[in-house]
């Protein structure tokens, strides 16, 4: 820094406390404080506010730091970097949100910063220890600003002893590991957001693999709408699709029955639902389990035969005292017959699924016991599109209902992960009133009380239901190209992370901003490279390479048509 620049920076800090602090810094051992650049101030505090402040930076000092071997020091003062401010015997850490040229200040640059937290200084080594989020003592205008070194960040991002998983490297360092506190991450839900092509699916697989490695007896259920994750968890997961899911239809509650069986609308729909409720309850009552239990409702998960339901509908239709004509009964009968005869629905409406297999089904889906495979990947890509949301609703509700009724048992938390979450929990303007949106919203609001954790993965956070994202205690944001999505995420981020959020459009692939309960302070992270065998099948096709190959197209078309006609995969 020039002599004039140094005078300009030292003048505002002429109070005794700052002078003593500066003396202590320059007198500290060289090995403790790192390079010369790290020991010299780069600016001073200009304005102070509750959560953020303004600092003046010396452009010449920033140029000097840019060639430093320490990557953290070399980026000091730049947007998205961290700086530190001495307050008494403590260091206050902040991130730089914006920069602008201002010739009215010495150095010529004014930056807005967000306070992240504070830590004590170890006098002999100069290291920061006991770092904690939040600010108890603010700096005064004129306090000196210094670069945050990699050694500083290593202390700040070090684990505080809680169980954590390592997922990558803290930017801009080369070797500081980024960890997620598992209990805080799962206990208060999390969301993984990112535009298509940013590595979102691979990042999700990485996080889930790390959790499975840490807890091989865990209980994770993942809804996979595109069949991407089966290849990633072929070794460590239970893979379920329409060929082996075998989800009994009688597990559906009344609302879910109506979504599949009732096709009418308006006043006709209410008539059909009333008829279905009466006949469905009568069909459930025919099972001997109903006699043992006593009073049951139309929602009770009691097995019944579709043939019994059809007979009851037929008998009710023949009654002379029925309150309507026969058309509603015929609509319901026609829909049931259609589903029974359609091979696409056999995974759910097969005649082989009438036995009481509820305990076995829940054990299989929730991985209880895990038997070395703590995650079940439920591929719903082969489910007919008209009932996909209902199938997801049934699975999600089973997770929540099981948690409620298992309160008298030793708690077995379950993590429910939903890929393409905006399809199932849409915003009010896109909502179709389906049951899946209501149950997932309820899990977001109440699930943590019962040991149900929710992980939402989406590329369109602005299309999520209002309030659901705000229920996620940890937000992992990758690059988002849409301005509406950026604004939505920014509103959900804590105040101290706003500077990081502004860098979301500039993130590279496999980079993210993490903030919330799962980390000590907001951080920018470069994800680890995931082994090929553990990656999801989500790579974009290479048009040039595939179009450069020729031969065998006619046979491929024939095989495709055969599968298409057979409605199989």
Please characterize this protein's 3D structure.
This protein has 569 residues and is α/β, with parallel strands linked by helices. An 11-stranded mixed β-sheet has the order 9-8-18-17-16-10-15-14-11-13-12. It has a 6-stranded antiparallel beta barrel with strand order 1-2-5-4-3-7. The N and C termini lie far apart (68 Å). 43% of the residues are buried.
Quickly give the structural class.
alpha/beta
Overall mean pLDDT:
85
Query: What's the oligomerization state?
Result: single chain
Q: Tell me the strand percentage band.
A: 15-25%
- The end-to-end span amounts to 68 Å
* Radius of gyration using CA atoms only: 30 Å
Q: How many β-strand runs? A: 18
Shape: elongated
Low-confidence runs of at least 5 consecutive residues: 1-33
List the helices and strands and how they pair.
Layout (H helix, E strand, L loop, with lengths): L2 H8 L5 H12 L2 H4 L2 H4 L3 E6 L3 E7 H7 L5 H4 L7 E6 L2 E12 L6 E14 L6 E6 L10 E4 L2 H7 L7 E7 L6 E5 H6 L2 E4 L6 H15 L5 E5 L12 E4 L13 H8 L4 H20 L2 H6 L12 H12 L9 H15 L4 H4 L8 H9 L8 E5 L8 H18 L8 E6 L1 H4 L10 H16 L1 E7 L15 E4 L5 H10 L5 H4 L9 E6 L6 E5 L15 H6 L4 H14 L3
Parallel strand pairs: 10-15, 10-16, 11-13, 11-14, 12-13, 14-15
Antiparallel strand pairs: 1-2, 1-7, 2-5, 3-4, 3-7, 4-5, 5-6, 8-9, 8-18, 16-17, 17-18
What is shown here, in short?
With 569 residues, the chain is an alpha/beta fold. The chain contains 23 helices and 18 strands.
Descriptive labels:
single chain, 569 residues, alpha/beta, 11-stranded mixed sheet, 6-stranded antiparallel beta barrel, 18 strands, disordered N terminus
């Amino acid at each position: 820094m020039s002599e004039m620049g140094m005078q300009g920076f030292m003048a505002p800090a002429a109070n005794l406390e700052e002078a003593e602090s500066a003396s202590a810094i320059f007198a500290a051992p060289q090995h403790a404080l790192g390079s010369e650049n790290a020991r010299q101030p780069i600016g001073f505090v200009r304005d102070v506010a509750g959560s953020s402040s303004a600092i003046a930076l010396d452009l010449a000092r920033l140029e000097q730091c840019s060639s430093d071997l320490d990557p953290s020091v070399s980026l000091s003062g730049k947007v998205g970097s961290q700086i530190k401010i001495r307050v008494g015997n403590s260091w206050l850490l902040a991130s730089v949100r914006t920069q602008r040229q201002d010739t009215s200040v010495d150095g010529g640059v004014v930056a807005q910063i967000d306070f992240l937290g504070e830590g004590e200084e170890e006098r002999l080594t100069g290291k920061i220890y006991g770092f904690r989020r939040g600010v108890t003592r603010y700096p005064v205008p004129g306090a000196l600003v210094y670069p945050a070194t990699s050694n500083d960040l290593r202390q700040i991002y070090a684990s505080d002893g809680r169980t954590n998983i390592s997922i990558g490297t803290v930017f801009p360092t080369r070797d500081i590991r980024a960890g997620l506190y598992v209990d805080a991450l799962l206990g208060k839900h999390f969301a993984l957001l990112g535009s298509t092509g940013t590595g979102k699916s691979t990042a999700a697989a990485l996080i889930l693999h790390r959790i499975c490695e840490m807890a091989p007896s865990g209980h994770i259920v993942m809804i996979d709408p595109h069949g991407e994750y089966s290849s990633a968890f072929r070794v460590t997961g239970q893979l379920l699709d329409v060929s082996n899911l075998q989800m009994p239809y009688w597990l559906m509650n009344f609302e879910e029955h109506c979504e599949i069986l009732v096709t009418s609308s308006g006043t006709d729909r209410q008539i059909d639902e009333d008829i279905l409720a009466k006949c469905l309850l009568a069909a459930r009552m025919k099972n001997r389990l109903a006699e043992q239990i006593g009073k049951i409702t139309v929602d009770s998960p009691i097995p019944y035969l579709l043939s019994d339901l059809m007979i009851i509908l037929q008998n009710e239709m023949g009654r002379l005292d029925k309150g309507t004509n026969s058309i509603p009964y015929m609509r319901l009968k026609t829909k049931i017959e259609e589903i029974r005869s359609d091979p696409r629905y056999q995974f759910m409406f097969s005649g082989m699924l009438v036995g009481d297999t509820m305990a076995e089904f829940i054990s299989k889906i929730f991985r209880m016991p895990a038997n070395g495979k703590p995650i079940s990947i439920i591929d719903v890509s082969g489910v007919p599109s008209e009932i996909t949301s209902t199938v997801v609703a049934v699975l999600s509700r089973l997770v929540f209902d099981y948690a409620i009724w298992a309160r008298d048992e030793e708690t077995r938390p379950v993590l429910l992960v939903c890929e393409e979450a905006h399809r199932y929990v849409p915003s009010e303007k896109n909502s179709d009133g389906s049951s899946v949106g209501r149950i997932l919203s309820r899990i977001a609001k109440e699930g943590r009380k019962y040991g149900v954790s929710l992980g939402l993965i989406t590329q369109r956070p602005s299309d999520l239901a209002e309030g659901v994202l705000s229920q996620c205690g940890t937000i992992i944001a990758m690059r988002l190209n849409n301005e509406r999505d950026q604004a939505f995420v920014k509103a959900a981020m804590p105040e101290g992370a706003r500077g990081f959020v502004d860098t979301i459009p500039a993130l590279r692939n496999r980079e993210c901003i993490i903030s919330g309960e799962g980390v000590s302070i907001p951080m920018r992270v470069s994800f680890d490279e995931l082994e090929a065998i553990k990656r999801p099948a989500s790579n974009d096709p290479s048009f040039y390479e595939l179009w450069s190959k020729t031969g065998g197209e006619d046979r491929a078309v024939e095989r495709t048509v055969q599968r298409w006609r057979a409605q199989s995969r």
